[in-house]
Each structure stands twice: as structure tokens, then as C-alpha cells.
Amino acid sequence: MKQQIKLSDHFDVKRMLRFTMPSIIMMIFTSIYGVVDGFFVSNFVGKTSFAAVNFIMPVLMILGAFGFMLGAGGSAIVAFSLGQGKKDEAQRQFSLFVYAGLVLGFIMAVFGLVFMKPVAIALGAEGQMLEDCILYGRIIALASPAYMLQFEFQTFFITAEKPKLGLYMTLVSGVANMVLDALFMAVFRWGIVGAAVATALSQFIGGIVPLVYFFRPNTSLLRLVRTKYVGKWMLKACTNGSSELMSNISFSLVGILYNFQLMKYAGEDGVAAYGVLMYVNMIFIAVFIGFATGLAPVFGYHYGAENYDELKSLLKKSLKVIGICSVAMLVFGEACAYPLSYIFVGYDASLMSITLRGFMIYSFSFLFAGFAIFGSAFFTALSDGVTSAIMAFLRTLVFQVAAVLVLPVFFELDGIWWSIVVAEVMAVLLTVFFMVIKRKKYGYW
């Protein structure tokens, strides 16, 4: 039986991969929710409903973004307290962040129910596409409390030294989503309602079951206990996790802008093609996010314990792993562009052509994205939320917005596909800049 890996251990590459693999798989399965919905909606309901799901998805991701903020920002604080030996304080901090996430989830659910229709209209949806956006969006919004908790617990399971338990939980909810999608759409023929209900139910599994686990006595480092509101903890968590919040909100806003540009240059087919790219992108990027968030508590722990030699070692090994994965993903993306496009939209020749062309260009972004994602998560782990937020803001909003507005003017539809590649290159240059100027302050170089 393999010995459990602890935050205080020395990490070689093998141990690093063992420790982060559950987090990587968790993120992949979380991403698969949308992918499975997209596959069944596209093939069993039609491309109008498929475009509607992709059109409203950025709005739904904003609702869950606060869970990422509290999970990433809060786990760095909890890990830091554990590194200092303050276990009781870490328990109270953990409890506060979870309870706050639950309350925020209910607020987001109400917001989604009330404003889903006016938001969809404002974004330009109309006709059947508008009706599908409202129906799908409102059902998903109802699950916002569980959706937010699910994102939080993905990180807190790692901080609690139970990454495998978090993995198992995500696998169960992910498989449930796939089975329910097949049952509700392929068998019962519930259409887009079936897709939304399947995803909502799987999110309840991923969010509520861990809540019960941490409420009961357990063998992890963390348990939900009585706590009180401490403003400085919440402020620190929100500031520290602001990069994750910014990344998710910016990603959603940019997605909305992409859809607007695609409607202009390619119509409904362009939105559907972009949806396919986003599904594949979510899975590929999930590997980098899972690796970065999986190691974040380790960085936070050793920074709190002032183990600077271990920080240097972790950083060097991490960059090597990301470099190898980046090249592998580019090769895989180019090689699998045709079969992956065919799986989703092979039934429509024109849509297939647009998707395949976009895929071949978009895949180059995988060569750069991992370094920028890791850089932002790294500074979050060191409790430098300001630097992390600046990096996330520029990468996910400023660079992408500038690129997607300018490049199509010269290259039309191809310019939209190249936008993400250009934005990621600029984000890597920014990451290198901050890594260099902050190296002495944190002692990782």
C-alpha cells in the first residue's frame, strides 16, 4: 500500500504527479459535464439548441466563479495556517469559506432565475435559440449552491490531504452526468431540459455529499466546525482568490464577445463551431488547472513554513512538467482535430468545415496556456492575490478582448481563431516578467 503524501513532504516529479493527478482528473471530469451535454444536445436535439447551450454557458460560468474564488483563495490561507501549526484556526477558516460559498450560491440562484431572460435577450439571442437559452439557464441556475460548493471542495480536498477522495467524488458525479444525459435525452427524449436536469443533479452530488463528509468526524486535516465571520479572513480569501474569480468572469465575458463576433462573421454555425472548440479547450486546460491547483496548497504550506529550498525545487520541476505537457497537447490537438470535430458536428458538412479549420488554428494556444495558468495559481498560493489578479485580468480579458476585436478586421473568421493564440503568447511573456521581478521577495529562485 502506497504511503499517503503529505503537504510537508519533499516532492520529486513522481510524487508531484501522484499528488496532483486526482486534482487533474477532477478538473477534467468537471469539464466533461459541459462536453457531454454538448454532445447529446448536438446529436439528439439539433444545432440550434447546441448553439443555445454554448451561447448561455458563459453566463452560467459567472454564477459559479465565486466558488473558484473562495476555494483557491481560501485554501491558500488554510494551507498557510496548517504550515504554521495553527490547526484550530485553519478549521475555523475552512468552515467560514464553505458557509460563505453556500450563501453566495443561493444568491446566485435567485439572480439566475430572475435575470436569465433579460440577459439572454441583451446578448442577442432570439427565436427558438432564446427560448432554449432561458430554459437551460434557469434549470442550471437552481443548482448554483451545489455548483459553487463543488468548485470549493475540489481545492479543499487537496488541502485536507484527501485528493483521492475528492477524485472519487468527482468521478461519481461525472459518471452520473453522463448516464443521466443518455437517459434523459437519448431514451426519454426530454431535449434540452434533459441536458440541464442531468447536469444540475450531478452538481448536487459533487457539492452536497462532500459537505456531509466534512460535517462528520473524518480522517482528513479539515472538518466543518462552529465559526464566526472574520472580516480579514474573508477579505484575504477574496483578494487572494480574485485572480480565479477574474479568470472565470473574464473567460465568460470573452466567450460572450467571441459569440458576438462569430454571429457577425459566420452566424449560428460559427457559435456552434466555437462551442466544440470550447469543449475540447476545457478538457485540455483542465489538465493545467488541475496541476496548478493541486500543487498550490503544497507551495502555500512550504511558504508558510519558510522552506525556500523546497519552493525552488517545486517550481523548477513544475515548469518542466508543464513544458512537456504543452508540446504533447499541441501534437494531440492537431492530430485529433478531425475526429473530435466529427464527433460533435459530423452531421453538417458546412459546420464541420468551419469547426475543423478553427481547431487546427486554436490548438496552438495549448503550447502557451499552461505556463500562464500556472503562474497565476503560483502567486495565489504565495498569498500574493494582487499579482495573481493582475496576471489573470490581463490574460483572460485585456489580451483576448484586444485580439478578438482587432484580428478579425484583417483576417475575418481566421482572426477569431488566432485571437486566443496571440493572447496566450502575451500572457506567457507577462508571467516571465512577474516571475523575475518577484523572485527575491518570495525566495523561489
Search tags:
86% helix, mainly alpha, 445 residues, globular
The overall pLDDT, averaged over residues, is 87
Question: What sort of overall outline do the alpha carbons produce when their principal axes are compared?
Answer: globular
Count of DSSP H/I helices: 16
- Largest sheet properties: none
Helix content: over 70%
Strand content: under 5%
Straight-line N-to-C gap: 35 Å
Number of strands: 0
Kindly give the count of domains.
1
Radius of gyration: 21 Å
Structural class by secondary-structure content: mainly alpha
Order of helices and strands: HHHHHHHHHHHHHHHH
Summarize the structure in words.
- There is one protein chain.
- With 445 residues, this protein is mainly alpha-helical.
- It has one domain.
- Helix content is 86%, strand content 0%.
- The chain contains 16 helices and no strands.
- It has helices spanning 13-44, 47-83, 87-123, 127-142, 144-159, 163-187, 192-215, 231-240, 242-265, 267-304, 308-335, 337-345, 349-362, 366-381, 385-437, 439-442.
- Helix 5 (144-159) crosses helix 7 (192-215).
- The chain is globular.
- The protein starts with 12 loop residues before the first helix and ends with a helix.
- The relative contact order is 0.14.
- The mean pLDDT is 87.
